[in-house]
Design brief:
Elements (H helix, E strand, L loop, with lengths): L10 H18 L5 H29 L6
Helix pairs in contact: 1-2
């Protein structure tokens, strides 16, 4: 792997988070199916990418130095 991407764009990370969350929810007695987990992973990946874009724009606007 030579590509570097921000952590919030990693489907593996979001998959692990959803799996852990589903396990915790399962302990409470609520069943989360595989299809629901897949949909949630896709949603969180898209949300993470959008949040990253917003953070990047805010960071550039509030930056004190020019890009050179």
């Amino acid at each position: 792997m030579t590509d570097i991407k921000p952590w919030w764009q990693s489907k593996t990370l979001w998959g692990a988070i959803v799996t852990l969350g589903s396990a915790v929810i399962g302990l409470v007695g609520i069943d989360v199916g595989d299809a629901d987990q897949e949909a949630l992973i896709e949603l969180l990946t898209a949300f993470g990418a959008a949040a990253g874009g917003v953070i990047t724009i805010i960071g550039r606007i509030s930056a004190k130095s020019r890009i050179g």
